[in-house]
Design brief:
alpha+beta, SH3 type barrels, 2 domains, elongated, PRC-barrel domain-containing protein, signal, PRC-brl_dom
Length: 253
């Protein structure tokens, strides 16, 4: 069931096309200066106005080629070290009598289909072979510069990561030296072309409804590194009890 409106998805796509990749030094500075947001200061209202569910984006978006024909499906989203969405992974090829091929399209080349049913990418039968290349080590710069193929098991290189690497991780509370299991990551919220929140499904003892936690950035805080099975947040159980439920039906309001 789709939880994200077309208008919210359009906002996320439009914002990404306007954002240029940050220089390497700016990215490093942003990572080292990342602040841990106290849950008491965490406001989810902006998420409802401008956020889009990454899980819905991956599950629901069809991929249309340069000629307007349906050519495949969205498989994943690639995020840079500063949390900015830099590329979309898509599985394409069935229409062109070739085997299924995974390609990576820079996010600033992705457009929303007029009816909101999918995304339009600059791929065609004539140029898809150019993107189907073996990539032993795929770095951040490569994905920003152009489409790349064969991504199923590709090494994404330093600090670039897939949304699917974070969804499904265990969520834990860190309170001083104590670590407590809290639930698992069920979704990621994209806002203005970047990751801004992590949606957690708590364990039964903490309630049945989704909660939105801040996203601090890869290597920006003590919460998560790509490849780790845990997403940690600096908070005690008393702080978590005051965290409001996340309401999916309010996205895009």
């Amino acid at each position: 069931m789709t939880r994200t409106t077309t208008s919210a998805l359009a906002l996320a796509l439009a914002a990404a096309t306007l954002a240029a990749p940050a220089p390497a030094q700016e990215t490093a500075d942003a990572l080292s200066d990342a602040d841990v947001i106290a849950l008491a200061d965490w406001n989810t209202e902006d998420l409802y106005a401008n956020g889009v569910s990454a899980d819905d984006f991956i599950d629901d978006m069809e991929v249309y080629g340069a000629g307007g024909e349906e050519i495949g499906d969205v498989e994943d989203v690639i995020v840079g070290p500063d949390g900015t969405v830099i590329a979309i992974i898509a599985e394409v090829g069935g229409l062109w009598d070739i085997g299924d091929t995974h390609v990576s399209i820079p996010f600033d080349l992705v457009e929303l289909a007029p009816d909101g049913s999918g995304i339009i990418v600059p791929l065609s039968e004539e140029n898809v072979d150019d993107y189907d290349i073996a990539t032993p080590a795929l770095g951040l710069g490569t994905m920003q510069e152009g489409p790349v193929g064969d991504l199923d098991d590709a090494d994404l290189g330093p600090r670039a990561w897939r949304i699917s690497e974070l969804i499904g991780d265990y969520a834990r509370l860190r309170d001083d030296d104590a670590i407590r299991d809290y639930g698992y990551v069920s979704d990621v919220i994209l806002e203005n072309g970047a990751v801004t929140a992590v949606i957690v499904q708590p364990a039964f003892e903490y309630g049945e409804n989704y909660r939105a936690w801040p996203y601090y950035g890869y290597e920006g805080g003590a919460d998560w590194d790509a490849g780790s099975p845990y997403y940690d947040i600096e908070a005690g159980e008393d702080e978590i009890s005051d965290l409001a439920d996340f309401e999916y039906d309010r996205l895009g309001e």
